[in-house]
Amino acid sequence: MTIHTFHKSRRSGTLRRFGLTILVVLLLVGVYLATLQFIGNFHTVITGELYRSGQPSAAAIEDYSRRYGLRTIVNLRGAKPGKPWYDNEVATARRLGITHIDFAMSSRRELKQAEAARLLAMLESAPKPILIHCEAGADRTSLVSALYLAHAAKADEESAEGQISLFFGHIGLPLLSPTYAIDRTWEKLEPWLGFKDS
């Protein structure tokens, strides 16, 4: 074996190991994200005040209501009468005496400051505890949780921004992720929220 062949073989082995490592990491992330969806992606933002999740089933709403005393559900997917998930959610909330609010926003479009202000005013005046949700609980819900923590709870930047992360299923990669609008929105709203050095 020549020195050139040895180095080429070694480089090839290194590339294979690197590729295998990347594949394993992607597989683990995929399993984690699937698990989040399976369990409903439910998390506490502020105990007794704000909770977050993916699209809840009627059974999940009943469970959350019993365990956490929910008084309001904020659906970030917007009103969708005629869709089974929406009709079941509204009917379950009504039956349990939970206020139901629709606020349509997109994970692929930046939320403007005026829209954020309207949403935060609505959240502040809604009966607590509140459950906010979107479809997966990863993108829109992450942004709204961060906004609420920063604005209403006066949390520090790191705590608020921590709501927008892979831990909750959000993947924010510039140019690669269609939901990167969530990250852009947060960055643009940080000065308005009082984070001047961002």
In words, what does this structure look like?
By secondary structure, the chain is of the alpha/beta class. The chain is 50% helix and 10% strand. The chain has 2 domains: 1-38; 40-189, Protein tyrosine phosphatase superfamily (Protein-Tyrosine Phosphatase, Chain A, Alpha-Beta Complex). It has helices spanning 3-38, 58-68, 84-96, 113-125, 140-151, 157-161, 181-189, and strands at residues 43-46, 50-53, 72-75, 99-102, 130-133. It has a 5-stranded mixed sheet with strand order 1-2-5-3-4, sandwiched between helices. Helix 2 runs parallel beside helix 3 (84-96) and helix 4 (113-125) packs across helix 5. The radius of gyration is 21 Å and the shape is globular. The relative contact order is 0.14. The model has no long low-confidence stretch (mean pLDDT 88).
What is the fold's blueprint, element by element?
Blueprint: H1 3-38, E1 43-46, E2 50-53, H2 58-68, E3 72-75, H3 84-96, E4 99-102, H4 113-125, E5 130-133, H5 140-151, H6 157-161, H7 181-189
Parallel strand pairs: 2-5, 3-4, 3-5
Antiparallel strand pairs: 1-2
Helix pairs in contact: 2-3, 4-5, 5-7
Structural class: alpha/beta
Unreliable stretches: none
Radius of gyration: 21 Å
Query: Reading side by side through the largest sheet, how are the strands ordered?
Result: 1-2-5-3-4
Give the strand content.
5-15%
- Count the E strands: 5
| CATH level 3 topology of the largest domain | Protein-Tyrosine Phosphatase, Chain A
User: For the record, what is the CATH homologous superfamily label of the largest domain?
Assistant: Protein tyrosine phosphatase superfamily
Helicity level: 40-55%
What best-fitting shape do the alpha-carbon axes yield? globular
How many strands, which pairing sense, and closed or not: the largest β-sheet?
5 strands, mixed
Helices and strands, in N-to-C order? HEEHEHEHEHHH
